[in-house]
Amino acid sequence: MRAITKKEIQIALDDVGISSGQIIMVHSDLTRIGWVANANSRVDILEFYFKSIMDQIGPEGTVVVLTCTESFARDGVAFHHEESPSEQGVLSEFIRTKDNSVRSMHPLFSVAAHGVKSELICGTGICNTGFGYGSPFHKLYENDAKILCIGVDLLSMTFIHHVEQMYGVPYGYTKEWDNQVYSSGKISNERFFAFVRYLDAGIDYNFSKMQNLLLKRGVAKTSALGLGAVWAVSAKDVFDIGIEQLKKDPFFFLNQTPKTQPWKK
Question: What is the pTM of this model?
């Protein structure tokens, strides 16, 4: 199997509009790309991608990754702000643990950032809500960030849930957890909330309609890389077009209107 090179990933990132000074939120599944030239270990592979991204966005750029800990909500596992590993893939955890990376303080939907604007995105105080106004996702919108998907397509964008909350889709609600949350080794007394979907409503997401629309409008781009591809789109375009479509149909991100509608009760 032929391994990808630094030049090839540079070309792919150029093709999708990733450039110097940008803030980019990265989602990835590196196994879908294939092997990396001259890599002898998993650390070599992760360093290759990290360095390739940082070289592309330069010293004024910032990379952001989702460091979501679903076990907090699903299994009641305590969240330790500085120690709980990301449950969103190896590149996410690799960037979270890099020196000078900053992680936002939310026990379910945290993100980590590395670069000059990491404090702006993640470190300016506690945000008690996972999405919505004041959240890191809102800051991505405000600062004209790009969303970059490596080895996965735009269906992986967590940013879509920010759009849902800001619009106020009927099939989701705000939930609070009372699981233990630790910061600097001490239990936090903060209250944390997040937008979640009704689990008993038969909600079936279908983001492919949104992806196809972004491609049709020419605001999303994709480029081949190794065995897979990279994708990129502006967070502002995702938000603006998403809101536009939800105004027409509040169930636009779903396969169909749920037959069970607990929000009516």
Answer: 0.94
- CB within 8 A of 178, min separation 6: which ones? none
Residue 43, both tokens: 């650390």
Tokens of residue 248, six digits:
């027409």
- Give CA 113 to chain center in angstroms: 11
What pLDDT does residue 93 have?
Answer: 97
CA pseudo-torsion sign 145, 171, 81, 105: positive
Give CA 116 to chain center in angstroms: 19
> Based on C-alpha coordinates, what's the Rg of the chain?
18
Tell me which residues of the chain have a pLDDT lower than 50: none
154 touches 162 (CB < 8 A): no
Structure-token pair, residue 50: 């990290």
Q: Which of 70, 53, 71 is nearest to 62 (CA)?
A: 53
For 248, phi then psi, to 5°, come to: -80, -40
Query: Residue 15's pLDDT is what?
Result: 98
Q: Which residues contact 189 (CB under 8 A, 6 or more apart)?
A: none
What is the DSSP-derived secondary structure letter of residue 2? P
- Output the furthest CA–CA distance in the chain (Å, rounded): 59
Tokens encoding 73:
């909500």
Provide the β-strand partners of residue 62.
23, 115
Length of the chain equals: 265
> Which of 96, 97, 133, 127 lies closest to 109 in space, CA to CA?
127
d(CA 226, CA 34): 6
